[in-house]
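agent> fetching stored inputs for the glyoxylic acid docking request
agent> found them:
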Amino acid sequence: MAESRPRVWVSQPLFDDLVDQLRAHCDVETTQAVTTYTAEQLAQKLAPLDGALITLNERIGATEIAQAPRLRALANVAVGYNNLDIAALSAAGVAVTNTPDVLTETTADLGFALLMATARRITEAEAFLREGRWGKWSFTTLLGADLHGSTLGILGMGRIGQAIARRARGFGMRVLYHNRSRLAAEVETDVGASYVPFDDLLRSSDHLVLVLPYTPASHHLIGAAALAKMKSTATLVNIARGGIVDELALADALAHGRLAGAGLDVFEGEPTVRPELLALKNVVLTPHIGSASLATRRAMVQLAVHNLLAALGFGPDAGNPPSLINADARKAAKTGGAIVGATTITATKR
Ligand code: GLV
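agent> prediction call returned; pasting tokens
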């Protein structure tokens, strides 16, 4: 009897021409409209599957996979994977992959765009003009802060943090960073950044950018206490995950002049943005577009397709998906699981 083809599901509209590569080996169900799934809907979708291509909007853990005995692989089309309960998935033998590297430079570009827009009050200036308030040119209107010659703090010094540091060098900025582990001396020299303790980073930064993974340890790391240590003239940029910042504490600091501005691409309750943030002029807000260039979003889907096929045992990397997060899923793998070889774990680097 012929072996049945794996069943896979693509949870959101991606790029059909890339997703179609899955059809060479799998039966594929795609999704035509952007969809928000409840836990019950996800459980129902996953139940008959061998694998799925998912995005950061799908939150999947023990409950969602409880009825999915065949599930072997989830390819997350994102570098961050706080939407997934990795321990539960590993215990069930489900290989999880992400999309590192291909989005590094594009996301660093967006980080820099927010740094510049926040420091120079670009969205506030545009609103001022569009609303017809530019009655006379004034020497002291919309004064901002310089990036050149200032101190940039980077919290989280993985791939994207390092790419931001390299850009900062071109702007003549002094770059400080804090990270769970210090970079090797030669990498520090290469990116031109100096390691400092967390509190020193907060106190010394003229502009602080958050690029660290969202974990229980980083939940609300930037809260009232951390914000109080920052300069009142400083700006804060978050391109990591909204939950790293206590948004109410941030809004309060911004409203009362204890912080000059913020550039936010991510929000704790996204796509809902707190009214306290929306009400402020000194915040630049973008709808989680860090990696959203056409070329990069396509590269992410291509990598995820490659990872999914490899995790299901197909293609040149069959059994060794290049961006496997949970090598321990192999130990727990169900009989017939396709993950076989050793793979570098890149879980903590953004
Ligand atoms: C986007 O936020 C990602 O994690 O890729």
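agent> quick read of the result: The chain is about 35% helix and 15% strand.
agent> awaiting further instructions
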